[in-house]
């Protein structure tokens, strides 16, 4: 990532972009980071492509917020029409927020039957944890060791990936996430559940008690860890034993990304209520007590939500109340309505499954030739690829991962790297990513890998 202005590290930028970089560094706070050794200046987007001022086309293999594609015409149409008509809040009777809520809740198991809107994932995480604490009377929250859950005081305090200068909350305990590359798949699930148990016991002994186990259902910042399917349900069973709740952070995996509408479905083995999922036929698994939605929900319009059971949120709603000025406003709901329609009409979860499988196959083929590619992990269109030292195939190699990311950027293909060792290629394009996009990505990656070997 390029932080601030360094013209020497970006010698190929146009004079206009160089000037923009300079001005940017003079007004934006030092928190802001740019991706890549050479920043990308984009002026428009379409589908899974971004374009710079010179009209160059970048393949977007990274952005999950525009899930149905950049600048989707239906979002533009619905949002423009709504903005020209009415934009208020949830304290008046309006049709759109009710009918959207009915449709969205129908995609969840029926027990999850109430929704509260906010504007960002962080706000929704914050509310989910407040709800869990209120409902259980406990304070403790268990998160994974490299989790990211947001920017507010509470959600940053649940985000160890922000590093040592970001203090975790006093009632927060971390556990190592499953590691698909290094764990024994036969025991990984039970071992994760055992770590949850130890952490819950610790919270109990300290008199804090367990309010919730909060996990991103695809463990994005822990390096994309979808396997073994079911480990979150096993962990949730332990949480319930201790009187705690399972909060599924669906901000990254939600809305079809992982091949099902919700990422937790991979772990509960259910699709909605009745259709058994493919992963765990017949498993009597718990469902999340609370699900938190965000990012792709409005395809770029700020909208997020907390979904839970009526009885769980009842007392909080009556005794604490929650009003979010912009949360669930008609314009954001119009964007969310467009997203939900397109996800359904184009069966984007199904498309994510097939396209993701093709990408995973192509990546596995490349790993046969290029030994710096280690394990390929995939759930729908969320893929993580370990970059390792070819001489020590289990050793994470963040420097080579960064070289791959920047080499692809030089070929106008955009990905990133994540994970506790920053060595996992994060491949997470808009869900409309097509077959030609897949070919271009794999060809560019092969070219990049060959140039790094040369
Ligand atoms: C898993 C997860 N949860 C929560 C958040 C916070 O969402 P927001 O940036 O919309 O506040 C993020 C953002 O990256 C996230 O990845």
Automatic annotation (TrEMBL):
MF annotations from Gene Ontology: transaminase activity
Alphabetized Pfam families for the sequence: Aminotran_3 (PF00202)
Keywords: Aminotransferase, Pyridoxal phosphate, Transferase
Record InterPro entries: Aminotrans_3, PyrdxlP-dep_Trfase, PyrdxlP-dep_Trfase_major, PyrdxlP-dep_Trfase_small
Parts forming coiled coils: none
Keyword Transferase: yes
Family to which the UniProt record says this protein belongs: Belongs to the class-III pyridoxal-phosphate-dependent aminotransferase family.
Protein's UniProt name: Aspartate aminotransferase family protein
Organism: Brevibacterium samyangense
